[in-house]
Amino acid sequence: MKVVFMGTPDFSVPTLQALVDAGYEVAGVFTQPDRPRGRGGKVQMSPVKELALRLGIPVYQPLKIRVDGLEPLRALAPDVCVTAAFGQILSQEVLDVPRLGTVNVHASLLPRHRGAAPVQWAILSGDEVTGVTTMFTDRGIDTGDMLLRAETPVLPDDTAGTLTDRLSRMGAELLIETLRRLEAGDCPREKQDEALATYDPKVDKEMGRLDFAGTTRECVNRVRAMSPWPCAFVPLAEGALKVWNAAAFEEAADGTALLCEPIAGAVRVYLFGAGHVARCLAPELVRVGFDLTVIDAREPLLMGEGFACASERLLEDPAAAAGRLPLGSNDYAVVMASSHETDFAVLAQLLKKQPGYIGCIGSRRKIAMARESLSAAGVDEAAFAARVHAPIGLPIRAETPEEIAVSIAGEMIQVRAQRRGPTSHGCPMHG
Predict the structure, then answer these.
(1) Which of 120, 252, 257, 288, by CA, is between 20 and 30 Å from 81?
(2) Which of these, 270, 358, 250, 363, lies nearest to 314 by C-alpha position?
(3) Nearest partner of 325 among 312, 339, 336, judged by Cα
(4) How far apart are CA 310 and CA 47, in angstroms?
(5) Coil, strand, or helix at residue 413?
(6) Rounded CA gap, 96 and 223, in Å?
């Protein structure tokens, strides 16, 4: 079976990988055009394009597939098209191209939560169960006939980020089962019940605004649904407080309160290096409220599933990135690149700036070598000792990559708390 895949964000990546792993001939990949992303506004490829290039699959990036993508699609002559968060509406002309139709992977239990943000709205709505649905695409928005469905509970501590990651993996598995059953001729097909249908709009930054006139549960759900993007916030006279974590707790027999952790200005961690310790560290940092950018010149490592939690991945030389990025007091830098020389070069660039935290992984011998190398390059040894946490991490005798990641995350939490001052604590904000 010849397949053409259409997708764009991280959610789509497991499905494309699953198609290749299952032995399907993926003749081409359609994804959104490269666009500026991140604080630096650097033009970047979509996660799907990055994977497709790594797999050697031809990539097509039409501005509008119904206009400039139709003829390339026809030339590929696919048996079936597979879509997963592509980001464009398909015209009937596009839908008519594949011999067997177009199968979509949608992150909800249709017909509930049609639209572009089903994961966020499942949490906002207080759903206890959600899932993924495979369906035949038609001219409507998520209105086509359903094929297979898979369910998962919405856990009390699920955020949009964690739930999206889980659903993306489930969707990949479900898509392969769907194609196999379509080939075998025993795949069920069910029309959607319009009486049960809901449609949800896109999420924007304003949706992160917390309204304390609502119930405690509504406030907590909004914080969870807006994490990691756009992040819930409380408007202030000057700027806003971002709220990364929130939980409902019993305050008294007759009521509840909202316990949340407000952060004035989110802390972004720049992780220089995408090795095995970094893969363990990345989800730990995101889980405790840091915003994460991962930087590495090794594409297979950077684009792996271990860093899907990062809000930004920069495929470039770590030392060059350290020199280019405008790092300030709300930016933390963790140095764990591919070699001593690279780490030393990154440190040299970081010490020219004023990030709120600099940490470098390595043995005491490596750190001594770093001091010697940077001193020879004109870096003041006292400045190094005062500003660089090295060896990085709390002294908990960590040995495994997982333990080292915990020690590093613990140290960074400690630094963040110290910088906030003695008033930093969870505070009831709603009764």
Answers:
(1) 120
(2) 270
(3) 312
(4) 12
(5) helix
(6) 42
CB 332 within 8 A of CB 322: no
The CA R_g of the chain, rounded to the nearest whole Å, is: 24
Tokens 């040299």 correspond to 348
Average pLDDT for the chain:
88
Q: What secondary structure letter does DSSP report for 11?
A: G
Contact (Cβ atoms closer than 8 angstroms) between residue 361 and residue 277? yes
**Which residues contact residue 125 at a Cβ distance below 8 angstroms, ignoring those fewer than 6 apart?**
113, 221
| Half-sphere exposure of residue 366: CA atoms within 13 angstroms, side-chain side | 17
Q: What is the pLDDT of residues 106-135, one digit of tens each?
A: 999 999 999 999 999 999 999 999 999 999
Question: What end-to-end distance do the CA atoms of the chain give, in Å?
Answer: 58
DSSP letters of 295-336?
A: EES-HHHHTSGGGTT-SEEEES-HHHHHHHS---TTEEEEE-
Confidence bin at 225 (pLDDT 50/70/90): very high
Q: Quote the pTM value.
A: 0.66
Domains of the chain, each with CATH number or no CATH: 2-200 (3.40.50.170), 206-265 (3.10.25.10), 268-419 (3.40.50.720)
d(CA 275, CA 426): 34
Helical (H) or strand (E) element with 25:
strand 25-30
Contact criterion met (CB below 8 Å) for 393 and 408: yes
**pLDDT at residue 420 in the model:** 62
Q: Tokens 């020219």 belong to which residue?
A: 352
What is the Cα–Cα distance from 179 to 170, expressed in whole angstroms? 14
Note the Cα 264 to chain centre separation in Å: 22
| Separation between Cα atoms, residue 130 and residue 174, nearest integer Å | 14
Beta bridge partners of 150: 132
Looking up tokens 């075998």, which residue turns up? 184
- Helix or strand or coil: residue 1? coil
Q: Which among 153, 23, 138, 37 is positioned nearest to 89, based on CA atoms?
A: 138
pLDDT of residue 417: 81
How many residues are recorded in the chain?
Answer: 431
Query: pLDDT class for 382, splitting at 50, 70, 90?
Result: confident
How would you label 113-129 residue by residue, b for 16+ Cβ within 10 Å and e otherwise? bbbebbbbbbbbbebee
- Is beta strand 80-84 parallel, antiparallel or unpaired with respect to 59-60? unpaired
**Amino acid, res. 258:** L
Q: What is the DSSP-derived secondary structure letter of residue 33?
A: P
